Amino acid sequence: MMQRLLAHIDWPPGRRPGSAPEPSSSPPPAPLLPSHPLHADADVTDVEDARRTALRKAFTPTHPLRSARRLAGRRTQLARVLRAMLDESAHVVMYAERGRGKTSLINLVSEALRALAFMVGSYSCAAEDDFDAILRGLMRSLPRSLLAVPVQQGEDRLLGCEAALPDGRLQTHDVLGLTGRFTGRRMVLVVDEFDRVTDVATRTRLADTIKLLSDRAAPILFIIVGVSDNLEELLGRHPSIQRNVVSVPLPLLTDTEIEALLERGAQEAGLVFPPAARYAIAGLARGVPYIAQLLALHAGYSMLRRGSQEIARADLDEALEIAVAEADPRVSRLYETLTEGGRDTAMRAFLRSLANGTQDAFGRFVVEPAGPGFLSVAGRAAPAELWQRLVDAGAVRRCGDGGPHLFAMAEATFGNYVLMRAARDGPERRAETLSPVQATTVAR
Ligand SMILES: Nc1ncnc2c1ncn2[C@@H]1O[C@H](COP(=O)(O)OP(=O)(O)O)[C@@H](O)[C@H]1O
Ligand SMILES: [Mg+2]
């Protein structure tokens, strides 16, 4: 059943869900376009433009994916969401840190559901949104042609299918009234970035709506997506809906999946990503697809500026330079504060050991006592005093449902920043970080 469903998605040719990962050292791709010294200047410019465009399309750190062609991993989660909706008629809550691929995966889920004749509405929340704003946004995203009854006079100003909702302040049961107002039978409503909504009442009303829809077995299912550690944190405490909602936490990618992401992008952009460069980026990304895409894009631009078609060490250095310089200021400020502008070498070493330490599939790590004055932090001994400084600065947070010893970085990419700084700043350290041997032995 699931194979049939997944077949609706446009996997890369020759690769099906569950197939073995791509070999890590496939032959270099054919050059995208030939370069020749005798080409006229205009042609050279055209070729360069084409290469830049291909690179930009292959590595998209600032855009969620829209097709499965470039999706690395995620088969399990994709299958779980589809099974929840199709076989269990359950609503879904998907959560993870920023940059882990939530919106990308949801785009593919939506594509698969549309192929199965679902009407799929989506809305990305803003901080000030309330229940009304979310529901109206969802309806506006649906094409008007789905309305069973044409819009009435005076409703022209309404966008998409907003006319399916009554005027005035919306109530929970207004969602039930949507059934019958559409040409299609089954509807999925995707609410992305739900963590941004600050209004507690809106969370409760959305949870109430899910409960009501489930109780009446209505053919409308919600997918709620956001930054969170768990379902309750995102949707609020609402014990009676637990049965009707399937939780889909999104783990980090594995190093193999990160390398597959890089290899696939390289083939698409017509460039060569040597194994050592892929290992190095996987060691810095530590499972975060955003970081892998970012470093690959900048390394690619540097390679093009050199007039080459193969990523070299100098390109990684350049990519690191840019990624560090353009990092989220909250992350770089935190690093500067903790390390006193980089002068506190003990703190720098501690951060590096933590960022390279043992983490679980969600990037969380364990902190436990390890003798007087010492702790075991992410599997490595560290002075308790240094750890306390991280706690005091708000650089780490306890993971709500993981017991007293489980922690995560407060800023999702802080660990990546620490590793990128180390690789950029310290020559010995850089040699270590950028060598394949080191990257393959990084604990996960
Ligand atoms: N499975 C994946 N394979 C390859 N790239 C991915 C994958 N998931 C996410 N990305 C890339 O990572 C970046 C962040 O993804 P996005 O879906 O926006 O994350 P989120 O919604 O969790 O913040 C984007 O550049 C996207 O293209
Ligand atoms: Mg997103």
TrEMBL record:
Pfam families: nSTAND1 (PF20703). Gene3D superfamilies: P-loop containing nucleotide triphosphate hydrolases. Residues 7-39 are annotated as: Disordered. Residues 24-34 have a biased composition (Pro residues). Residues 68-356 form the Novel STAND NTPase domain. It comes from the Bacteria. InterPro entries: nSTAND1, P-loop_NTPase. This is Novel STAND NTPase 1 domain-containing protein. It comes from Craurococcus roseus. The lineage of its organism: Bacteria, Pseudomonadati, Pseudomonadota, Alphaproteobacteria, Acetobacterales.
